[in-house]
Structures are given as C-alpha cells and as structure tokens.
Design a protein that fits this description.
Number of strands: 13
Structural class: alpha/beta
CATH topology of the largest domain: Nucleotidyltransferase, domain 5
Order of helices and strands: EEEEEHEEHHHEHHHEEEHHHHHEHHHEH
Strand content: 15-25%
Largest sheet: 8 strands, mixed
Helix content: 25-40%
Mean pLDDT: 95
Low-confidence stretches: 391-399
Strand order of the largest sheet: 5-4-3-2-1-6-8-7
C-alpha cells in the first residue's frame, strides 16, 4: 500500500477548528476538509472530500480542543489510504514586526508569538493553542506558522505609520494590515486569469471580515486594516474606521475595556447597524429600513476607502472581488461598480449575474474580476516550500 505524505492546515478559533489535509507536493492538492464546531458545549465533527461531499458526520459531546485534535488525528489514521502526517501549517493572524515570512516553530519562536497577543487578543491565543497540542500527540511533527500580516510587511514606511510619538511606534504601534494570506493567493493565481500582472490593482476581500488592498507591481502598497482587524471597512460585527474620540467618550461614561471589546468586535458593523444580522445575504433579503441602511453604509464606506487607495495608486488597471460577499453577491458587486463608473469601471451585468471570472465589458478601461480565494491552499504551499528546503526539527515544550 502506498503511503501519502500529508500537510495539515489548521485555523483554530475559540469554539471551532477548521482543518484541511493537502498532499505534500510542489503544488499541494486538497484531500479533505475537517471541521469541529461547538467546542465546550455540543461538539460536532464533520469531514468532506475535495468535492464537498460528506465523508463523516457525528456528535462528540462536550469536549475541549485537545480532545478534538485527538479525535481528528485518530480519524486520519483510520482512513483506508495510508496517510503520513508530516507537517502542520497554522494560520496566525499577527506576526508583529519580526515575522514577515513563514517560520518553522521552535520553543523560542512560540514564546515570541505569544508575546504578540496584545496586538490580536481575540485571535492570537486561539491560533497558537493547537501547536503544543499537536506536538503532544505527534512529537516529530514539523509545524509552520503562516502570517496574515506578512504580505503587507513591505509597504512603504509612510503607509504604516500612525501620527504617534516615537516611543509608541517603537512598541509596535503601526499599521500592519490583514487578510494577507488571501491577497497572496489571489496574486499567485492571477496568471490563470490575466495575461499579465496589472500594474495598479485593488483586491476587495469582502466577507464577515472585510478589507481592501492596493497592489502595485505585485506588492502591497496600502490596505484598509491597521494595527488590528477592526480598522477600515464596515464588517459583519466589527465597526471599521472609528473616530478615537468615540472610545474616549465611552471610557468617560464608565465603559470597561471588556465592554468596548465586545462592542467593537461583536456588536457593531452590519449587525449593529441593522439590529438584524451580520449576514449580508440575510440583509439583502430583508425589506426592513434597518437592513437597507446597513447595506448603504457598507457600500458607502467601501467606496470611501476605495477612493483613497486609487489616489495612492495614482490610477487603476484592475479590480478583483473575492471573499464570501465578493465571490457570491452579484448585487453588492453591481452596486459597488455603479458607484465607481466614473473611474472607468464598466460592469457587464449579465456576466456579473452569472458570476463569471471576468465581469467587465470588453471596452472597460478597468478590468473587473471575481476570483475565489483559498487561504488554506496558500498555507499548504508555504508549508511545502519551507519544509522541503529545511531540515530543522520542530519541538515545542508542553509547559
């Protein structure tokens, strides 16, 4: 029986684990997806093959992350094919100033990543938690940290700076940007769609988390998210750009930092504006004025930020929509492009409704595209590139 070396891609949250198995080869191919949801209450285990068909589905009861990974690894070992799990790639939201490329995780690096938690308190601890758990079960497993901030690390300094004193900048307070794993995947997949790389490109990653990035000659020039993933566009439950005076006002009214965190991350955005849902599809189907208002603000803020990025690029050659909303909502794409007609963005409405790859008219000065993103595959590719050029063994202390 043939043994297949595999890479496990891990994206862990507070109550869920999303994983994918990829082949360890120059162009990794997806084997299956593995999902564990409802951790800490009524856990649910689901696996799907590369075509999206369900392979396994069962309830696991009240289990924690460690028990979930034990079940996940046991499932892999029980498969008919002989799978040899040789590496794991982890989506790490924040790489800070020092991590600008994927890295093999060592005890020292793990501690350094933990120290970045204040920059991403809601994501970093959950992203890092699986590393010691997997090392406990598979001591020789190579583990690679892949960063959402890395793609933006080569932006000009002027695009990264806040107008704050030097002492605070030295502490790492600057604009980092996020969704980098998605933007990098889109950039690498462009040869499948365009004959040549556009010199001035804006990618709109629109989903429950949303951002725009201006890309010039294949490099991030500016992006809408900043120190945290709260900045920029209106999102599902996140506020987007906010006058700092709002925070000062609420603090003066007696709000705690925990109250503010809950407000800004979980109660704002589309949900806060509508009072109905953070799901764009639900809002589009609603006939309430609150839903209409939330959609209008979402589009208004997107156009506002888009104009700033076009000015930074000094023009535009191509626009790409990606992410859950960007890939699946023809209505939002149409309403955005309508507001950008002045820029030379001419939408082919039939192509848009059919969600074709190119949705601009033949005579549009700016080409418009819908390109699915695949952050998991990008992580698998980064892991393959790293572990096949390094012999470093990866050991993480359980302490």
């Amino acid at each position: 029986m043939v043994t297949h070396d595999l890479i496990l891609v891990v994206n862990a949250g507070s109550s869920s684990i999303k994983c994918a198995l990829f082949t360890n080869q120059p162009t990794p191919e997806i084997i299956c997806h593995i999902y564990v949801t409802g951790l800490g209450s009524h856990s649910h285990f689901l696996t799907k093959d590369s075509q999206g068909s369900t392979l396994t589905e069962k309830t696991l009861g009240n289990i924690n992350h460690e028990q979930a990974f034990a079940h996940l690894l046991a499932w892999i070992e029980q498969q008919e094919n002989t799978y040899n799990l040789i590496a794991a790639g982890h989506r790490i939201v924040h790489g800070g100033q020092q991590f600008t490329t994927p890295v093999l995780v060592t005890p020292t690096i793990y501690q350094q990543l933990q120290q970045l938690t204040p920059l991403a308190p809601l994501h970093q601890p959950h992203n890092l938690a699986p590393i010691p758990i997997l090392q406990h079960f598979k001591h020789t497993l190579q583990q690679v940290a892949c960063f959402d901030t890395a793609f933006h690390s080569q932006q000009p300094e002027i695009a990264q700076l806040f107008a704050l004193p030097h002492a605070l900048r030295k502490q790492g307070l600057k604009r980092y940007g996020f969704h980098g794993l998605s933007y990098e995947y889109i950039l690498h997949s462009l040869p499948n769609y365009l004959d040549e790389l556009p010199k001035r490109l804006i990618v709109a990653h629109l989903g429950n988390g949303a951002s725009l990035t201006a890309i010039q000659d294949g490099r991030s020039l500016a992006t809408t998210m900043g120190l945290t993933a709260l900045d920029g566009l209106v999102m599902g439950t996140r506020c987007g750009t906010l006058d700092p005076g709002v925070i000062l006002y609420l603090l003066q009214q007696g709000w705690s930092t925990q109250d503010l965190e809950k407000l800004l991350y979980h109660q704002s955005g589309l949900l806060g504006l509508s009072g109905i849902s953070n799901d764009m599809q639900v809002l589009l189907q609603s006939e309430t004025p609150q839903a209409a208002l939330a959609i209008e603000v979402f589009i208004y803020r997107l156009i506002w930020e888009f104009g700033a990025l076009v000015a930074t690029l000094q023009g535009l050659d191509a626009l790409i929509f990606t992410g859950g909303i960007g890939e699946h909502s023809a209505i939002i794409r149409s309403r955005v492009c309508e507001k950008l007609h002045w820029l030379g963005i001419h939408l082919d409405e039939l192509a848009n409704q059919q969600s074709r790859s190119q949705i601009s008219t033949k005579d549009s000065p700016v080409s418009i595209w819908v390109i699915p993103t695949d952050e998991e595959k990008n992580i698998a590719q980064q892991v393959y590139n790293l572990i096949n050029t390094s012999s470093t063994s990866i050991i993480i202390s359980e302490n």
